[in-house]
Amino acid sequence: MGSLLKAERLRNRIMIWAEEEMRAGELPPKSDLVLKAVLYQGVLERGEVDTILGISDRAARRITSALLKIGALRSESTRAPLYLAFPAKYAERWMPGLFPVS
Q1: Strands, E assignment, 1-102
Q2: Less crowded by CB within 10 Å, the N or C end of the chain?
Q3: Does residue 100 belong to any structural domain of this protein?
């Protein structure tokens, strides 16, 4: 189980997942960059998203909203910072082998 939680491997799996979701049209472009920032920093202030991505505030809100809706990020309120979520629906993809297959 320790190998599942190695930061570099987990980060790579999440980034690959994000790229695939963007290609499939499930996430807007540049969503992976927001996830990457959260993965490296642990927390991301909402006001930093537009600066990190070099896009308008409206476009940043659209990306943030999509990541919250899909369950990849969480936040305590509409103004609170963003954190990585570990939703059960992505457990097998983000951390394969963590739960036994029944």
Answers
A1: 73-74, 83-84
A2: C
A3: no
How far is the C-alpha of 101 from the C-alpha of 76, rounded, in Å? Answer: 32
Residue 41 clears pLDDT 60, i.e. is over it: yes
> What is the CB neighbour count within 10 angstroms for residue 96?
10
How many domains does the structure of the chain reveal?
1
Residue-wise pLDDT for 50-76, tens only, equals 999 999 999 999 999 999 999 999 999
- The pLDDT, as a whole number, for residue 100 is 62
**Residue 68, in any domain of the structure:** yes
Helix count and strand count (H, E) for the chain: 5, 2
Structure tokens at 81: 């910072």
What range defines the domain where residue 29 resides?
Answer: 7-94
Q: Is the pTM of this model over 0.70?
A: yes
